[in-house]
Design a protein that fits this description.
This protein is of the alpha/beta class. It has a single domain, classed as Nucleotidyltransferase, domain 5 (2-Layer Sandwich), CATH 3.30.420.10. Helix content is 46%, strand content 20%. It has a five-stranded mixed sheet. β2 and β3 form a beta hairpin. The protein is globular and about 50 Å long.
Length: 184
């Protein structure tokens, strides 16, 4: 039986890029994959961008997602860091566009709020909530992976269940109301 939808979530970065992939069947969400792309060994920024593009294409070709959700860069004080992060995000978006996948962008605050109900939640709080929602045993070594997964889950919560005919979730609270047995 084919899934209703597959969502690839990406947390762009210039040192580590996190990703998570979920499968949706009806109102069931299942973790397919999560991980990171290590970019620390690349000293040339252009080569990092090439690696992001290639790895994003590879994930798309392997999992065939219906949507690509990506975290928007947050506004920081360091302009150079913002520029590099924006390029990393742009290259991942370009890979999705190259494979004609719809792109959706979410602010870090929106992602955290969708997962935990608190837009100022820590990476650890987001990771533990995802662990509960998707029933996976061990947290990854790098929380960038769960950050990428959080973007995919946020996209699901924000867009609802297109195939189920039910109204979409508007956040964590509405998910709990619809799924009282999911969280203890």
């Amino acid at each position: 039986m084919n899934p209703d939808r597959i969502i690839l979530g990406i947390d762009p970065g210039t040192s580590i890029m996190g990703y998570g992939i979920i499968e949706l069947r009806g109102n069931k969400m299942k973790l397919l994959s999560l991980g990171v792309i290590q970019l620390n060994k690349c000293t040339d920024h252009a080569l990092k961008l090439k690696r992001i593009f290639e790895k994003t294409l590879s994930l798309i070709d392997e999992y065939k997602p219906d949507d690509l959700a990506i975290e928007a860069p947050f506004f920081g004080k360091n302009v150079q860091s913002m520029l590099k992060l924006g390029r990393a995000q742009g290259v991942a978006i370009a890979a999705g566009l190259y494979r004609t996948i719809p792109i959706f962008e979410y602010s870090p605050k929106k992602v955290k709020q969708s997962i935990t109900g608190n837009g100022n939640a820590s990476k650890e709080q987001v990771a533990v909530m995802l662990q509960t929602l998707l029933n996976f045993e061990e947290l990854p070594s790098y929380l960038d992976a769960t950050d990428g997964l959080a973007v995919a889950v946020c996209h699901y919560f924000q867009n609802g269940k297109k195939t189920s005919g039910k109204k979409p979730y508007t956040g964590w609270k509405s998910f709990l109301v619809e799924n009282p047995g999911k969280v203890i």
